[in-house]
Amino acid sequence: MSKSVEKNKKLIELRGTRTQQDVAECLGIRQNHYSMIETGQRLPRRELALKIATYFRSTVDEIFFGQ
Q1: How far is CA 4 from CA 44, 58, 59, in A?
Q2: From CA 4, how far away is CA 1, in angstroms rounded?
Q3: Where are the alpha helices (DSSP H) in the chain?
Q4: Is the pTM of this model over 0.85?
Q5: CA-to-CA distance for 9 and 21, rounded, in angstroms?
Q6: What is the DSSP letter of 19?
Q7: Residue 1 DSSP label
Q8: R_g of the chain, CA atoms, integer Å
Q9: Could you say which of 5, 37, 53, 60 is the most buried, measured as most Cβ atoms within 10 Å of its Cβ?
Q10: Best CA proximity match to 50, nearest among 37, 38, 63
């Protein structure tokens, strides 16, 4: 049974006019890895989730758990 992929709307909103490539470079990851996180195909490891939250001046809970 497959579960539908839910995009991370918060990440998309926070990225704004920046490209996925720009954000990925700042995070030290490849664009396709960032894209998979943004589209909900992957969840980042704890270290990367913290790096993303710091980059966007947010919290892991707000970005990935809607809290």
Answers
A1: 18, 26, 25
A2: 10
A3: 9-15, 20-27, 31-38, 46-55, 60-64
A4: yes
A5: 17
A6: -
A7: -
A8: 11
A9: 37
A10: 63
Domain boundaries, the chain: 9-62
> In a structure prediction context, what are the per-residue pLDDT tens digits for the chain, which is 67 residues long?
334 457 889 999 999 999 999 999 999 999 999 999 999 999 999 999 999 999 999 999 999 988 6
First to last CA, the chain: 28
User: The CATH number of 9-62 is which of 3.30.300.130, 1.10.260.40, 1.10.3720.10, 2.40.110.10?
Assistant: 1.10.260.40
